[in-house]
Every structure is written in structure tokens, then in C-alpha cells.
Amino acid sequence: MSDSPATESKPSYVKLAMRNMVQKRLTSLKHFLLTTVGLVAVLVGLAYLTR
């Protein structure tokens, strides 16, 4: 009963993404912060334009 690569199931996309996020922690945090700041800026800008 050896574990052959043919019988192993491929890891799911979510599992691969989480593993990649853990390995590249600084890049993930930077992208998350940039996305958050950008979203807040868009919402504040829309609120200012539509007041």
C-alpha cells in the first residue's frame, strides 16, 4: 500500500491559495491593504460627489 501520486487527489484551489498566502505573507498583506484603501477612497469619493 504505497502512496502513489496517481491515486492522490489534487489539492483544491482554495487550499493552494491559502498555502500561497501563508508563504507570501507580506505581499498578501500589502495587496489587501491597497485594496482596502482603494475601496474606501472610491466610497468616500462617491459620497462626496453625490452629497
What would you say this structure looks like, in words?
The structure is a single chain. The protein is an all-alpha fold. Helices cover 71% and strands 0% of the residues. It has helices spanning 13-23, 25-49. The protein is elongated and about 60 Å long. The mean pLDDT is 86.
Write the layout of secondary structure elements.
Layout: H1 13-23, H2 25-49
In brief, what are we looking at here?
71% of the residues lie in helices and 0% in strands. By secondary structure, it is mainly alpha-helical.
Question: How many DSSP E strands?
Answer: 0
Percent range of helical residues:
over 70%
Number of contiguous helices:
2
Contiguous low-pLDDT stretches (5 residues minimum) are none
Shape: elongated
- Arithmetic mean of pLDDT: 86
Topology order in helix (H) and strand (E) letters: HH
Taking the sheet with the most strands, its summary is: none
End-to-end gap? 69 Å
Q: Name the beta content range.
A: under 5%
List keywords for this structure.
2 helices; mainly alpha; 51 residues
